[in-house]
Amino acid sequence: MSRIYGRIALIGLGLIAGSMSLAIRRAGLAGEVVGYARSEGTRDIAREIGLCDRIEDTAAAAVEGADLVVLCVPVGAMGSVAAEIAPGLKPGATVSDVGSVKRAVIDAVAPHLPDGVHFVPAHPLAGTEHSGPRSGFPELFDNRWCLIVPQEGADRGAVDRLEALWQGIGALTDEMDADHHDLVLAVTSHAPHLIAYTMVGVADDLGRVTDSEVIKYSAAGFRDFTRIAASDPTMWRDVFLNNREATLEILGRFTEELFALQRAIRTGDGDHLHAYFTRTRAIRRGIIEAGQDTDAPDFGRARSG
Ligand SMILES: NC(=O)C1=CN([C@@H]2O[C@H](COP(=O)(O)OP(=O)(O)OC[C@H]3O[C@@H](n4cnc5c(N)ncnc54)[C@H](O)[C@@H]3O)[C@@H](O)[C@H]2O)C=CC1
Ligand SMILES: O=C(O)C(=O)Cc1ccc(O)cc1
C-alpha cells in the first residue's frame, strides 16, 4: 500500500498507539512513525521492542515536522497533552485522537490548537483488557469500526486522509456527530463496562462464596465480566468522568429495567421474563444477520458478500 503521511507522531505509547504503529509500519502507510510517552520506563520498553521508528524524550521533539499527530493518552489527559504539543505543531498538520469519549475531548483539545492545524477526532472500536507498550499488535483494528468525528467546517482533504489511514490498517470507517457518538458508546461500551465492574465487585464482596470458588466455577458470562473488569483503571475512570450525562442516562434506564426484572422474579411472573428474553434474543440475531458480528470467523466474507 502507498504512503499516506510523511511523518506520524503518536503520543502515549500503550495498547492503541502500539497497535497503530505496528500496523502503519507493516502496511507502509507513513515515511516514519515517531513515538513519545511521558514515562521514561515506557520509552525504554518502546525502544527495546522497536515499537516505532524513533522514540523521542519530549512531546515537542516527537511532533516536530509531523504531518499527523495522534493523541493516544487517557481521555482526561488529552487537554494537557494538546497544550504541551501545540507550540511545536507544523502548519497544515492534522491532530487526531483515539479517545473513547468525543465531546469532552473536543472541548479540551480544540482551544489549544493553532489556526492552520486540522483537528479530526476519531475512535477505533477495538481494544482488549491489556494496556501498556507491550500490549499492542498489528491486527487489532482488522474489520473493526473506527468512528471519525469531523468538526464543523473541517477540511475535507484532512478528514479523507485520516479515514484512508484507518482503512489502510484494516478498519471500517464511519462518520458521526460527537454527542451522538457519546450516547451510542454509553449504551454499547461504557455502561456494559460499569456493569462488569459491578458484578465482579459483588462476587468479591460475597462472604459466603470464596474468591477461589468464583475463579474455579466461573461460567462463561462471569468470565467475560472478569476480562472486561481487568481493563485499565485510569482509562475507565476518565471515560466515566468525561461521558457523565450519557452514561447516567443509560444507567438510569438500566436500573429501571433491572427493578422490573427483579420484581418479576419475586412475584413469579414468568411471562414477563420470557417476553423480555425473547425481545433481547432478537437483538443478537439482528447483529448476526446484519453481518456485524466482528468476532465471527466469516465476518470478512459477510461484509464483502
Ligand atoms: N484500551 C482500549 O480497549 C481502547 C482505548 N481507547 C482509548 O485510547 C486511549 C489510550 O488507551 P490505551 O492505549 O488502551 O491506554 P494505555 O494505558 O495502554 O496507554 C496510555 C498511554 O498514555 C500514557 N499517559 C497516561 N497519562 C498520561 C499523561 N497525563 N500524559 C502523557 N501520557 C500519559 C501512558 O503512560 C501510556 O503510555 C484512551 O483515550 C482510551 O480511551 C480507544 C479504544 C479502545
Ligand atoms: O475489550 C473489550 O471488550 C472492549 O470493549 C474494548 C474497547 C474498550 C474501549 C473502547 O473505547 C473501545 C473498545
TrEMBL record:
Domain Prephenate/arogenate dehydrogenase: 6-295
This protein's record includes keyword RNA-binding: no
Keyword Oxidoreductase appears in the UniProt entry: yes
Gene3D superfamilies membership: 6-phosphogluconate dehydrogenase C-terminal like domain (1.10.3660.10), NAD(P)-binding Rossmann-like Domain (3.40.50.720)
GO biological process: tyrosine biosynthetic process
Catalysis performed (reactions): prephenate + NAD(+) = 3-(4-hydroxyphenyl)pyruvate + CO2 + NADH
Annotated GO MF terms: NAD+ binding; prephenate dehydrogenase (NAD+) activity; prephenate dehydrogenase (NADP+) activity
Enzyme Commission number(s) from the entry: 1.3.1.12
Keywords assigned: Amino-acid biosynthesis, Aromatic amino acid biosynthesis, NAD, Oxidoreductase, Tyrosine biosynthesis
A Pfam family hit: PDH_C
EC top class named in words: oxidoreductase
Similarity comment: Belongs to the prephenate/arogenate dehydrogenase family.
Name under which the protein is recorded: prephenate dehydrogenase
Source lineage: Bacteria, Pseudomonadati, Pseudomonadota, Alphaproteobacteria, Rhodobacterales
